[in-house]
């Protein structure tokens, strides 16, 4: 059967059709994909800061309460401590403008919604041993009275509960020990060693070395615990 020959299009006809097609097609602008992430804005971040600080340069306790409400995190929640650590805040209950801009820039948060989207990340840092150690150590200077070298006992017990209460099996016992002890506060060395103790010493204290380089506070805790168990 003979093959029917197809007429090749004339070059001029093709050019003409292209012109007609382009004339009949509306001009289409590039559309930003739905859900595309916009870039961080320092200006937007500063505006966000002044929503709480007003014309001043510090977010104080009252404004901080409103900030926590907007973010959906209680002021006493450990996540606020993690956030303060990221901001390198010097004083509990206060965020300065410089602290806010520095920390929120690192976190890439310039509005409430973006910070809310980072809460799971902040929470995950509590399960990272290295990050948690830094947060724990930061908490000492962050929460102490800057006129004192020690962390007063009431604050120390509250912060230990916040940081170790959910993970250290011996914390309830240690808390009772602190309540009946002669100590009015914890110094930095004692604070640091409590974390090390919680990480390395078995709940039954079986691997505690009395000749180790532990602070006297912890020697006394072990002795008190054993005497309570024996009675």
TrEMBL record:
Domain of life: Eukaryota
A biological process term (GO) from this entry: protein neddylation
GO cellular component, one term: nucleus
Keywords: Cytoplasm, Cytoskeleton, Nucleus, Phosphoprotein
Domain DCUN1: 40-226
Location in or out of the cell: Cytoplasm, Cytoskeleton, Spindle; Nucleus
MF GO annotations: cullin family protein binding; ubiquitin conjugating enzyme binding; ubiquitin-like protein binding
Any one Pfam family match given in the protein's UniProt record, by short name: Cullin_binding
Biological function: Contributes to the neddylation of all cullins by transferring NEDD8 from N-terminally acetylated NEDD8-conjugating E2s enzyme to different cullin C-terminal domain-RBX complexes which is necessary for the activation of cullin-RING E3 ubiquitin ligases (CRLs). May play a role in DNA damage response and may participate in cell proliferation and anchorage-independent cell growth.
Oligomeric and partner information: Part of a complex that contains DCUN1D5, CUL1 and RBX1; this interaction is bridged by CUL1. Interacts (via the DCUN1 domain) with the unneddylated cullins: interacts with CUL1, CUL2, CUL3, CUL4A, CUL4B and CUL5; these interactions promote the cullin neddylation and the identity of the cullin dictates the affinity of the interaction. Interacts (via DCUN1 domain) with UBE2M (N-terminally acetylated form) and probably with UBE2F (N-terminally acetylated form).
PANTHER family per the UniProt record, alphabetical: DCN1-LIKE PROTEIN 5, RP42 RELATED
Protein's name according to its UniProt entry: DCN1-like protein
Species of the source: Amphiprion ocellaris (Clown anemonefish)
Taxonomic path: Eukaryota, Metazoa, Chordata, Craniata, Vertebrata
């Amino acid at each position: 059967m003979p093959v029917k020959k197809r007429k090749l299009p004339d070059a001029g006809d093709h050019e003409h059709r292209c012109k007609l097609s382009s004339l009949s097609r509306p001009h289409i602008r590039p559309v930003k994909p739905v859900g595309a992430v916009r870039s961080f804005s320092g200006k937007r971040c500063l505006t966000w800061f002044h929503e709480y600080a007003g014309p001043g340069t510090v977010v104080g306790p009252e404004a901080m309460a409103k900030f926590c409400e907007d973010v959906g995190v209680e002021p006493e929640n450990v996540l606020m401590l993690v956030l303060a650590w990221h901001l390198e805040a010097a004083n509990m209950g206060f965020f300065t403008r410089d602290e806010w801009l520095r920390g929120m820039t690192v976190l890439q948060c310039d509005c409430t919604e973006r910070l809310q989207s980072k809460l799971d990340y902040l929470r995950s840092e509590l399960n990272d041993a290295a990050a948690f150690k830094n947060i724990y150590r930061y908490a000492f200077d962050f929460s102490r009275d800057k006129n004192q070298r020690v962390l007063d006992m009431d604050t120390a017990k509250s912060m230990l509960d916040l940081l170790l209460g959910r993970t250290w099996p011996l914390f309830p016992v240690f808390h009772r020990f602190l309540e009946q002890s002669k100590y009015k506060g914890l110094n930095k060395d004692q604070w640091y060693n409590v974390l090390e103790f919680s990480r390395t010493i078995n709940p039954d204290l079986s691997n505690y070395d009395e000749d180790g380089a532990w602070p006297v506070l912890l020697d006394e805790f072990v002795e008190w615990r054993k005497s309570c168990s024996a009675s």
